[in-house]
Amino acid sequence: MQIKKDFEEFLQKLKKASKNKIIVVEGIKDKKALESLGIENIITLKKPLYKVIEDIVETKKECIILTDLDKKGKELYGRLNSKLKQFGVKIDNRFREFLFKTKLRQIEGISRYLETIQ
């Protein structure tokens, strides 16, 4: 029961944070999954990485990187995190750190995961 409560609290905090921070996800399915939970300000990595970084730097907003927790996602996170920090973008890692404590590994599966936890 506590896991579900913690996860729902996590989603509420993410929803609130999305009002003034940019959330970066890998693909369209990830974006749709988060939007279905009321989360906004989401950009995908469907254009070259340098362009995504330029777009984020231009907004001067804090950023939450929610790439998948697999090998590819961790690699993308590392590249984005270091490049954005070079340009002075503040990265909020609390949400990603929380996800590592769960069994969820693919952002697009967030709704299904929410249904299965108790």
Instruction: Specify the helix fraction band.
Output: 55-70%
Structural class: mainly alpha
Major sheet summary line:
3 strands, parallel
Portion in strands: 5-15%
Tally of domains: 1
CATH architecture: 3-Layer(aba) Sandwich
Radius of gyration: 14 Å
Roughly what is the average pLDDT, rounded to an integer? 94
Low-pLDDT segments: none
What's the number of helices? 6
CATH topology: Dna Topoisomerase Vi A Subunit, Chain: A, domain 2
Tag the structure with descriptive keywords.
118 residues, mainly alpha, Dna Topoisomerase Vi A Subunit, Chain: A, domain 2, 6 helices, 3 strands, globular
Write a compact overview of the structure shown.
The protein is mostly helical. It contains 6 helices and 3 strands. It has a single domain (2-116), classed as Dna Topoisomerase Vi A Subunit, Chain: A, domain 2, CATH 3.40.1360.
List the helices and strands and how they pair.
Elements: H1 2-17, E1 21-25, H2 28-35, E2 42-44, H3 49-59, E3 62-65, H4 71-86, H5 94-100, H6 110-116
Describe the structure.
By secondary structure, the protein is mainly α. The chain has one domain: Dna Topoisomerase Vi A Subunit, Chain: A, domain 2, CATH 3.40.1360. 55% of the residues lie in helices and 10% in strands. A three-stranded parallel sheet has the order 2-1-3, with helices on both faces. α2 links the parallel β1 and β2. The protein starts with a helix and ends with a helix. The mean pLDDT is 94.
